Amino acid sequence: MKAAVVGTGYVGLVTGVVLARLGHQVTCIDKDPEKVAKLAGGIPTIHEEGLGPMLSACIDEGRLTFTTAYDEGCPQADVVFIAVGTPEDSEGKANLTFVRAAAESIGDVISGRTVVVTKSTVPPGTNRKVKQWVADKAPAGTDIAVVSNPEFLRQGSAVYDTFHADRLIIGAEDIRAGDLVEKLFAPLEVPVLRTDLESAELIKYASNTFLAMKISFINEMAQIADRIGADVTKVAKGMGMDRRISPDFLKAGIGYGGSCFPKDTKALTRIAEEAGYEFTYGKATDHVNDQQKNLLVEKALFRFGSLKDMNITLLGLSFKPGTDDMREAPSLSIIESLMEEGANVTVYDPVAAEKAAPLLPETVVTANDLKESLDGSDSVFLVTEWDEFKQMDLSMIASLCSQNILFDERNVFTEEDVKSAGIEYHSVGRRSVYPEEVVKTAAYYDKVQGL
Ligand SMILES: NC(=O)C1=CN([C@@H]2O[C@H](COP(=O)(O)OP(=O)(O)OC[C@H]3O[C@@H](n4cnc5c(N)ncnc54)[C@H](O)[C@@H]3O)[C@@H](O)[C@H]2O)C=CC1
Ligand SMILES: O=C(O)[C@H]1O[C@H](OP(=O)(O)OP(=O)(O)OC[C@H]2O[C@@H](n3ccc(=O)[nH]c3=O)[C@H](O)[C@@H]2O)[C@H](O)[C@@H](O)[C@@H]1O
């Protein structure tokens, strides 16, 4: 089949490449000419495992092209996907400006029957608007069908997730259009759920908010664990052994970041509000996430009294490992808090340094490698759990840093790991670990923690 994909970000690019890989003829359209030029040359514009070789292969085999021109892809396509961004607006709602612009540009160039599929995350009712926006620009008599096909891939494993998705949601009133989308993805052999438009749109928000809620829930358990001397990782393990709960998304830490959980949780709260309902879980999830970001900075303040003029190393910048995406990355708010407290901050990330550079305050020093980042540091904050950090030799902290203290925002290390490295260790929802010589000075801190 022939497909056009509008928007070549994380979702559009991966969708386009995977569809081409499945044997379809795909045209990817983006308004950003620089991005299009890079992609047309086989250079991935995002860091995603497995994407680069698949992109080049599909281009070489002649099944994948990139353009800024809608008329080079949409009129010929059996299916046109919209995968442009739907960022948060100033009121916490989904900003549909890009979706509308894409729909209108599609309308400008099509005639005859066209199936428009929305992959972007959009509030219930938007697909009906998309149909109208396309129709407003298309010639009279154009037969337009819309399908809601929300996306569930995770950044960092986007290609794998697309090939091994748990489900394909196809929301459509036009049965033929829904069938066509089902046929397009049939080679993936993914379980399919057919729904009406509004249910498909709500499934996406409900899924993201539910996962975000699980994270906020376990982060609240971490807050309780900190106060009563329990270990949140054990609590999560015990909870997760119940298949009805599942162990996934129960990792306590710094709170969720990224381009979707924060915005989608807020957007669903607004969707509910506009429908006359107060969505208490949405509000609570968001509130807990905000307070979680500062937990270890607060622990550091308890520990040191002041962070003024301390040299602090921050390991990891991207919102999670496996991606260079800096959208809503918790590292940024931690850096801000540390600098507000007067600390000197050095950062190191194995992948995201380039994307992070324009977002960092000028006084932040970016190290080129792990060793350089630790050299002379007073205290280390592990923020993104890249393999390089998970596998690091902890004795490096003892040997390179002037004070051997690690604040682990992701609960990466065990008590045994840090004890054998002889470092002081603070984490989330777990007891702090002190080398013998600082146990006495730490007594007050432990008292405050209630341990
Ligand atoms: N990033 C993710 O992991 C996931 C994102 N989503 C949803 O998918 C949608 C897209 O997200 P991302 O891929 O992260 O966005 P992105 O911001 O990475 O990419 C969007 C792309 O659309 C292009 N664009 C914007 N307006 C355009 C127009 N009028 N015509 C042509 N191109 C245009 C931009 O230049 C950009 O390349 C959002 O609604 C998001 O909520 C859903 C699941 C996963
Ligand atoms: O709509 C989207 O954009 C996507 O949002 C998330 O995917 P993503 O944001 O790429 O990454 P996740 O792996 O879900 O992690 C999100 C955030 O939660 C945090 N997290 C995740 C899991 C956990 O147990 N604890 C935790 O703090 C991560 O560190 C990260 O900051 C969802 O998992 C995808 O299904 C969805 O398609």
Automatic annotation (TrEMBL):
Any Gene Ontology biological process: UDP-glucuronate biosynthetic process
UniProt keyword terms in alphabetical order: NAD, Oxidoreductase
Pathway(s): Nucleotide-sugar biosynthesis; UDP-alpha-D-glucuronate biosynthesis; UDP-alpha-D-glucuronate from UDP-alpha-D-glucose: step 1/1
Binding site for substrate: 204, 249-253, 257, 320
Catalytic activity line of the entry: UDP-alpha-D-glucose + 2 NAD(+) + H2O = UDP-alpha-D-glucuronate + 2 NADH + 3 H(+)
Catalytic residues (positions): 260 (nucleophile)
Keyword Membrane: no
Extent of the signal sequence: none
UniProt organism field: Alteribacter lacisalsi
Family label: Belongs to the UDP-glucose/GDP-mannose dehydrogenase family.
The protein's name in its UniProt record: UDP-glucose 6-dehydrogenase
InterPro entries given in the database record: 6-PGluconate_DH-like_C_sf, NAD(P)-bd_dom_sf, UDP-Glc/GDP-Man, UDP-Glc/GDP-Man_DH_C, UDP-Glc/GDP-Man_DH_C_sf, UDP-Glc/GDP-Man_DH_dimer, UDP-Glc/GDP-Man_DH_N, UDPglc_DH_bac
Enzyme class: oxidoreductase
Tree of life domain: Bacteria
Residues the record lists as binding NAD(+): 30, 35, 86, 121, 263, 327
EC number of the protein: 1.1.1.22
Pfam (any one): UDPG_MGDP_dh_N
